[in-house]
Amino acid sequence: MNSEQLCEYFTQFILFVYSLIFRLITRVKKRSFTPYTDAFLDTISVQPEEWKLEGKQEKDEQIAFDATTIDGETSLFISIHTTGECLETFVHLQSGGRTLICPTTLARMSAGSGSIFLAGPLRLEMREPFRSWRIQYKGLMTDESTGEQVFVTLGGWWKPTSDAKWRYNFVDTNTLDDQLLSRPFCLVKHSRTAKNVLDTSDLTQWGEYHCELSIGGDEKKESRLRGLRTRYRDEVQQEQQFSVYFDHGDRLLWSRRQCEQGSITHGFMARGDQRVVPLTLHNKDSIYGLNYGDKDIINFEQASLPYAVSKISPPITFSYKTATGEVVSVTRLTVRHLKYDGQAIFIQRNAAYTKGPAPTLPPIPEYTAYGVEREMPVLRFSHRACQDSSITGGKAANLARLTSIANGFTVPRGISVTTTAFKSHLNAHSNIKKLIEKLGNQGNDLDTCLHLGEQIGAGLAASIMSEELKREITDTLLIETGSETRFAVRSSAVGEDGSELSSAGQLESYMEVEINDVPEKVLLCWASNYRKECLSYRKQYGQPINPLMGVVVQRMIVNGVAGVMFTCDPVRGDPSRVVINALKGKGEDVVSGTVTPDTVVLRKMEGTVIEQSEPCCLVEIAQARLLKAGLYLEGLFGGPQDVEFIVNLTTNEINVVQSRDVTGRERESDFELRTEFNSSNLTDHECYTMANVGEVMPEPLTPLFVSSSLKPYDSALMSKNEAAVRCNRHYQISFTVYNNRIVFNHGELFLRMWEQNEKDRISEFALGGQELFTKEMFEMGKQRYERLHQLFPLMRLANIIKIVVHDSYVLSKLAHEKEELCRSLIAGDTPAERLANLEKQRRVHTDMIIAHMGESMFSSFTYVVIAMIVRGADHGDFSPEMLSDIAAIFSSGNEVGAISADVPTALKNLAIALVEDGVNANQLEDEKEGLELIKSGKNSSAHYERFMSMHGHRGPGELDYIAQTWSDHPELLVHTVKGMVATPSALKKGEAHAEIDSVLDSLRSVKVTGAKRWFMKMIVRQSHRAVGLREECKNLLVKGSAHMRANIAALGTQLVDQGFLPEKELVFFFTLPELHHFIKSRAPRFISRAMRRRKIFPSFRGKRYEYFWQGPGHEIAEPTADLLTSSSLSGTTVCEGLVVGRARVAKSIDDARDTQPGEILITTYTDICWSPLFPIVKGLVTEVGGLLSHGAVVAREYGLPSLIAVKFATDVFKTGDLVELNATKGTISKVVEKEDDK
């Protein structure tokens, strides 16, 4: 071996060691956004670190949203660069064959919360970090083909379809090796490179943007676009990024970046089954080839398996350049993997060789007064301290800022009588000061506030201003305005004319005031701060009831035209139009609406007139100057302005007396309000069902419940799913929301085990009473989810045994302990303390949900085993006879009993006691008097106390926070009991259950003998225990919800008492994060949002949905004419029997109030509130329900012949129809009556 060979081997050895060190560095430093060491309960809450990551705007970062419909018909690309103190945005939209662009727009970075990005017509608002973004665009875009300016409105919600990922968690270490090979002796430098790469906070997340789009005034179109969201916080010289969102749920991201530390390549694939695996590109040139047309296939590798992506459409490319010189090129194209199409986007970024200076915008004057400035009673507009609204009020501070930036207009000179002067005046009038202090007391209702306000206003109006302050006002006016003799005196309250709340028209203004009368008008302006309109408005929006007051005194323009100019259409929000309302005289007449003004509508860009009143008080030159001033102010403040002005008729000089943002533009549209809480859909082929949840949560749920309790339910259920990968942090998988209703994603729940469930459909019957999946759905499951491990059946069996012999006992004990702990947390001396206890209750309640889910698994297991014995195999179909036999077995003797089945029994016993006390139905007509009779009865009182003790926490919609329980509204019981008392003969005991041996002997589909019989009897006993434990945990879970409801109600009362809320029920229409922010900030936008949610909430009620469906949610299809005329329907047997009787069709519990003994109840679903009807009806038919649902359990307890999953039963049958319910055969049919029988 010569020296050259030795040197070569030595070099290779050194490179191997260095490469190994690199790989160790990259492996050790890898991070997970949701560390597996985190406590499970942390996944149900937004963590403080997440608010820090998403809730602030960083300098020199880039944020991008890319989303496309799966057919490529509509696509949206949004890019935001933060450079220096500015936001730079670019928007590209394709829809309906049109390509629209909003070129790069500059705006100021948010001075307050970094959760809102505002740049011209674009608004991005982060509602919950990594969970919900609101994206709104309302403005002009340029049609690329025609150059025409088109008005576009776009609004909706971006929700995730994956957890957020650290960008470099899947960095390709081979690329770091390549750097080492090029410079083999730079280990330290490249080690730092690896550390810097892996420590970066760059994030990626896949999601769905559900929006409503209108272009050029066309009809609004609803769309669902899916794609990638990225957020980078590092410098890049060059980058190529390729991402794909496939129709079946697979998502790919590959990126190569060149920065100062070197070149970095990484890639990962988020699969449809929620697994995330590294992704490797075989040949990077194939990426560029897709763009230039000479390559049709890209070969990736994921989890050591090939993954080929082929091009099936020509690429569409666009590009833009940033203010710092960076060039970004974007290519879109449709691709395919196997038989699944996807939308791909290829982004290339190239930094300028010489980076340009960061863009700047003209400064907006802002100043905070300090020291002696805060003690000055009077300030001129030109004084910098006048810009501080805390001492001069909103109106005066705005005028001071306008004075300092006037360009093409003037601001009439004037002064501000500061809040210091106001406080000095109060100190000199202690009686008024005491009234104001009393007004600020917590717990004052509106009437008290109005009464005190009237006294304060009268006292201020009659008070005498000090001579010193009078001289200060008049002397400063003379210095500032010269010999002018007429002034406008206007109120300027602290907090007035803010971006979230306006007090327009509520405070007093006085025109044409002589200088000697100014002090008197100042007093009247102070008094107007306590008018009933102001106090009511503040009370309604939870604002401080007695803010300090400043007063503006300003030179009057006497020979002029006054008016208001909106630099966008104030109704439609169209920024291409400027709307001016004007008249000769005082501007207050325009604002107040007492006089109809002249109207001028201009095209903003051209300055031409679209429409104009004839004759018009504004001449053409005045219109042009107003337009110029409006454009200047709009550009300076970064959005459309509402400008109050006066035009001098002699000189046509423009005088601006107010400029503020046009209010209401940021308000959510009706579509956004309706869809705010809808969950995202991974694909257009997700499988959903109302089974089970349609009974448990049959009504729309409040925003507070959805935002605080949905994730705990989802995480708890996924933690019990044996085939699930893990519990996601940032989005729900199993429980999803549509129109504030909860639905199951049963594809995620069951198709993960497609291999087993395709052979054995019993789990579908247990959940929904029928087969739910089609052949196509199983095919989708095979593509998305891997086969289960070959040892999965053994692992599942071991888990089931563990549940039966151990967990079922432990979970029941856990539920009792957690219920007591949840009750102990109903406390808090302040809203913040009570909200903190509510957060603790959420964690405790999650444990109770897990306990209930575990007992439900126990119950489902016993059902599956019994069904397998009846079928005689571990797979195969179920005949009607088999289903009937299964129902008969479950209806056999039950020594345990379910607590939910005690509700009808307890009410029946209460009715019997009332009859024994001599009470008749007429005495129960008045609910209040009837309740007193029940409470005071000799026999009934004890039964009433027992019922309330055991079941008082239950009632309609019992899991939601806004539900009405029997304890809260005991009068709900009176009507139910009245019906029973009216028919004493119906108060019979439930039929005795057949013994298990006699049931087994009567089975038609299978003979059970020997060891099989012994095993069957053992499993039946376990099934009864399982149902009892499940219902017991459900009862405790409802108690936990009641404890949380009590805490929330008390929180609402505290917020009302402290003046934060106008009424306590409004608290249910906040989200949980909003409550945290509101208690700290008292921002009125939260109250306004909650009010609008409450207003729209009733529209969600009464909607009907398909029992199961595929794709995004929709309302139920109407029954066909043939179906409506049919005389018989079929369903799944719950409890055998054959009965004939009159139908009572009830789509709601209110419809069932007049149910008569002996009728057959036909309804959509049943929950605990329907229980009182079970003792008097003859049979039960429901459209929704599973074999283990509430109605099924109670019907079996009472031996009621019953069917479930009878679609359209409430449409086909009518109350009064004579029907035959044959629950043995699984049918309900109309009976033809002879005329004599009628």
Description:
The structure is a single chain. With 1238 residues, this protein is of the alpha+beta class. It is built from 36 helices and 43 strands. The strands form seven sheets. An eight-stranded antiparallel beta barrel has the order 1-2-3-4-7-8-10-11. An eight-stranded antiparallel beta barrel has the order 12-13-14-15-16-17-19-20. β30 (641-648) and β31 form a beta hairpin. α9 (430-439) runs antiparallel to α10 (446-462).
Write the layout of secondary structure elements.
Layout (H helix, E strand, L loop, with lengths): L2 H27 L18 H7 L6 E8 L6 E9 L2 E10 L2 E11 L7 E4 L2 E7 L3 E12 L5 E12 L4 E2 L6 H10 L4 H13 L3 E13 L5 E12 L5 E9 L4 E9 L2 E9 L5 E6 L3 H8 L4 E6 L2 E7 L4 E6 L5 E11 L2 E11 L27 E3 L8 H4 L1 H12 L8 E4 L1 H10 L1 H10 L6 H17 L4 H15 L5 E7 L15 E5 L4 H11 L3 H9 L8 E7 L4 E7 L10 E8 L2 H6 L5 E6 L5 E4 L7 H18 L3 E8 L5 E8 L8 H6 L11 E3 L3 H4 L6 H17 L15 E4 L2 E4 L1 H5 L3 H6 L2 H7 L6 H10 L7 H33 L6 H41 L8 H11 L11 H15 L10 H10 L3 H12 L19 H12 L13 H6 L8 H48 L14 H10 L2 H13 L11 E3 L10 H4 L3 E3 L1 E4 L2 E9 L13 E4 L15 E4 L7 H9 L3 E3 L4 H4 L5 E5 L4 E4 L8
Parallel strand pairs: 38-39, 39-40, 40-41
Antiparallel strand pairs: 1-2, 1-11, 2-3, 3-4, 4-7, 5-6, 6-7, 7-8, 8-10, 9-10, 10-11, 12-13, 12-20, 13-14, 14-15, 15-16, 16-17, 17-19, 18-19, 19-20, 21-22, 22-25, 23-24, 23-25, 26-27, 26-30, 27-28, 28-29, 30-31, 32-35, 33-34, 36-43, 37-41, 38-42, 42-43
